Amino acid sequence: GVMGKGAGTVKHFGLEKEVDLQMGTLSKAIGVVGGYVAGSKDLVDYLKVAARPFLFSTALTPADTAAITKAVEKLMASTELHDKLWEN
Q1: Strand pairing partners for 77?
Q2: What is the pTM of this model?
Q3: pLDDT band at 43; cut points 50, 70, 90
């Protein structure tokens, strides 16, 4: 993400202990398809069976998953791209 040091709004404002669920898109900062929901195992397990949009969605392809993994690894390994974003 672009907020703070690139770890998102919750991290930027120090709200990790206040926020139970985080959602985001991978098509903006990461540049691939899909999105994510992050939370406790119990909450995510509940959403998997109760959230109607999830019930009718499709899993990411292995190629998309590999692209996401590489993009996140690259962003985590260096601040160069994040710094360049703010320079622009």
Answers
A1: none
A2: 0.67
A3: very high
C-alpha span between 81 and 31 (Å, rounded): 13
Q: How far apart are CA 81 and CA 74, in angstroms?
A: 9
pLDDT, average across residues 49-69: 86
The CA–CA distances, whole Å, from 24 to 41, 65, 66, 85 equal 17, 15, 18, 19
Residue 21 CA to its chain's centroid (Å): 12
Q: Where are the domains of the chain?
A: 9-87
If one counts every other C-beta atom within 10 angstroms of the C-beta of residue 56, the result is: 7
User: E strands, 1-88, where?
Assistant: 21-25, 35-39
pLDDT of 4 > 80? The answer is: no
